[in-house]
Amino acid sequence: MAVVRDLRVLLRFQGFRRLLGVRLLSQGADGVYQVALATYVVFSPEKQTSAASIASAMAVLLLPYSLIGPFAGVLLDRWRRRQVFLYGNLLRTTLACVTAVLILSDVPDWLFYASALSVTAVNRFVLAGLSASLPRVVDADRLVLANSLSPTAGTLAATLGGGLAFAVRLVVADSDAAVVLVGAALYLCAALASLRIAPDLLGPEQELVHPHLATALAGTARGLAAGVRHLAERRRREAAWALMAMTLMRFCYGALTVMVLMLCRYAWAAGSDDGLALLGLAVGVSGAGFFVAALVTPWAAGQLGSGRWIAVCAGAAAILEPALCLPFAPAPMLMAAFVLGVTTQGAKIATDTIVQSSVDDGFRGRIFSVYDVLFNVAFVGAAAVAALILPSDGRSVSLVVTVAAVYASIAAAMASFERQ
User: Fold this and answer.
1) What's this model's pTM, rounded to 2 decimal places?
2) 77 has pLDDT over 70
3) At what angle do helices 272-304 and 143-167 cross, to 10 degrees?
C-alpha cells in the first residue's frame, strides 16, 4: 500500500521517528483522558447527569483549543519546543493525577472542571509544537507527506486511546479515576520519550524569536482580524460560504452528540455500563463514517465540485437524520451516527479544499486559525442550546426537527450559491 510505503520512507529519519513517538503517546493519552472525563460526567452512578453538565464538559474539552490556539504559536516561537514536550507532558501528568484525586473526593464541580481545563489547555501547546517541529526533522521534499501522515497517525492514536479507556472502564476497573491514571501514565511516557530528542533540534532559531512578547501577541490578534477581512473579499466568497456552512453543520453534529449521550445514559441502558458500551459503539460507528468520507470525498468533490458536494452532504443529512433519529432507538441511531460521520467529515474535507485553494498563501494560516475557533465554538454552542431543549431522557422531537431544518437550509443556501 502507498501509505505504508510512504510511512516507511519517513521512518528512516531518526528525528521524525522520535517526534512521532511523542505524538502517538501524547495523543493516545489525550484520548484516554477525554473519554475518562466524558464518562465521569455522563455515566458516574453517583451523579445525576444533565445536558447542562455535558455542555460544561464539552466546553472544558474544546474551548482551550479555540481561545489559546491562535496565540500558541507566538509562545512556541520563544520556547525550545523539545522542552515544551517535556515539561508540558510532565505538567499534564501531575494535573491528571490531581483530576483522579478530585474524582475520588467530594469536591465542588468547578474544581474538577478547573483541573480538567488545565490539562486540555496545555494540550494546545503540545499539538501546535508537534506541527511546528516537523520541518526540523524531515527534508523539504517530504514535508507535505509528513504533514499528511503524522496528524493522521495522531488521530488514530487518540481513537485507540479512547478505546483503551472504554476497555479499562468496562473490563479492568469500574472507576473513572483509574482510567485517568492510565492517561497520566501515558503522559509521563510521552515526557520521557521527548528526552530522546536533542534539546535544540526542534528549534526555534533564537535569531527568529520576536523580542517582545506583548508585541507578538498583539500582532497575532491584528493578523486574525486581517485574515477575516481577507476572507470577506468578493473573490473569496465561496470560502466564506463554505466556512459558514461547515460551522452550522458542526453545530448540528454537536447538538445530536449531546442527545445521544443523554439517550445512552437514561433511555437505552439498564445500567451505566450498558450505556457506556452503546456510547463506545456510537463513537466507533461515527469514526467509521469519517473514514468512509475520506475515501469517497475526493471522487465526489471531483465530479460535483467541492461546494456542490457540501450541499449534497447537508441535503443527505437533512433527509436521513430525522428518518433515523426520530424512532429514538439504538439501531437506527447508530446508522444515523455513521451517516452523519460521512456527511460531516465529507463537508469538512471539501471546506478545507475550498479554503486552501481560494485563500492567498500569506493568509492561509490565519484563516485556518479562525476556522478552528468557529469549529469548536459551534460545537460548544450546540451543547449549550441542546441543554436548554433536551428533556432528562434525551428524547426530543423538536431538537431533531430543528437540526434537520438547519441541514436543509445549508443545502439550499450552498446549492443556490453554486448556481450563481
Assistant:
1) 0.74
2) no
3) 160
